[in-house]
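Section 5.1 Outputs to date
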Amino acid sequence: MAEGSTVATKREHRPVCGEGVRTPPLRPGAYDPADYAASVVRSAGEAGVSPLLLMTVLHNEAYKPHHPLLERLWQWWKPGAAFGVANMHRATFEQVRRTHGLSGQWQDLRDRPPFAVHTAALYLSDLDRRLPERHVRRYTREELLALGYNAGERNMRAFARGVPPGPMARSYLRRFRAHRTRAAEVLADSMEPRADGPA
């Protein structure tokens, strides 16, 4: 597809930060979750969750520009806003930080995309441990985890029992299903050896 090749070309020219991950784009509208595929694969492996689940969640959370400057301005306007490429609220972050002994702070999610991705992976792992093995058949386990990421553990468990999601959760689930193919393509592309890489 021509559009995909254009995105890939743009991505090759982005600078790389010290953690081996491309820095956020200078133009906020150019944000692409694919920039963090390496972090997704690494963090998902460490947390014991599916990279596809994590990458699809990032695509779902890409509805707003993710750029440190814009997020700082947005926090000034709305102090309780969600931060980072995975859009995490402070209360959720603090829960994950306490559970896993993270040394970073909530504000770090703005400036450290790999940290934001890692924290999201840990949260999905926590949700997975709390999701009952048996659940209604209309959702896959990963769909319920994505709903939990969006609506919280309590709602996730209710959806698993058969309580119907509200309009916002249904919209999130529709987007999650729609983004799954693109997320899979991104992960597949990230596994292919680069022509300009070491032989």
